[in-house]
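Reply to thread "Modeling small-molecule complexes from scratch"

Following up on the discussion above, here's a worked example others can learn from. I took a protein sequence and the SMILES for magnesium ion and predicted the complex. Inputs first:
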Amino acid sequence: MDVAPGSVVEPGWLLSPEGRRHRDAILRKDRRRAFGLLERPALLPPPAAYKLFVSGKSGVGKTALVAALAGADVPPAHRETLGIQATSVYWPAKLRDSDCPVLFRLDFWDCGEASLRKFDHILPACKEEADGILFLFSFTDRSSFEDLPAQMARVTRPEENLLRVVVGTKFDQAARADVAERDVAAFERAWRLPVLRARSVPRPPGAAAADLAEVAPLLDALVERLWRRDQEAAGLLPVPSASGSPSPRRRASSVQ
Ligand SMILES: Nc1nc2c(ncn2[C@@H]2O[C@H](COP(=O)(O)OP(=O)(O)OP(=O)(O)O)[C@@H](O)[C@H]2O)c(=O)[nH]1
Ligand SMILES: [Mg+2]
């Protein structure tokens, strides 16, 4: 699915003066606010909730990425994730065709690669009712990039109609980069999938505004693609190609 960036969601709206009230609703004392199971940010109706499975080889930066997206502390060193770790991220966004912002809740299912290989039940659990998969590779690890097609084939089948998003991690490590931009461009052309870039680094406390600015492009891009996919599934847009028989997927959370 090819969504022109910014065609569905106003990029950077949450960081703009118009997004101020909603930005404040996800912050507390210059940190990202943590929401309990029965809580959600005020001001907006219940969220459109999506489940996203985060896939990629060990050490590629799955846990670091999810922590950065959630505004949590990014682990400074690699510690293998044992089993599955689910994290919910609330993200208000402004759709171009509506005056009213929409609250999104992205449930990231991060699973340690070693556990995934060891236990057969983990992959089905991560994919059950999932809306999309994030395929991660690291800009500092060429083998993780070259393995992307095999990784996608291992984890998903074309008829599954899951949103597929490719994310290159460790984009801040320019000096150690092992994947050239021309290789990324060739991949994007061949697979017709845009590659998003992430820099998930530990930050000093109290830098919530800077943290938000860092992750906003990726979160805006994710909710834009998920929303667009829902519209296609609901028959509101032409379906671009044979992609299975999707059903409407927009789900307002029952948890309030
Ligand atoms: N500089 C930099 N370091 C990163 C980035 N993403 C991850 N790292 C570091 O890479 C190491 C591994 O990251 P993790 O997120 O723990 O790796 P993982 O993919 O969750 O690994 P498993 O749980 O074993 O599957 C950690 O030391 C992170 O701090 C990034 O974008 N930039
Ligand atoms: Mg991990």
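What I'd highlight from this example: Residues 242-256 have pLDDT under 50 and may be disordered. DSSP finds eight helices and eight strands in the chain. Questions welcome below.
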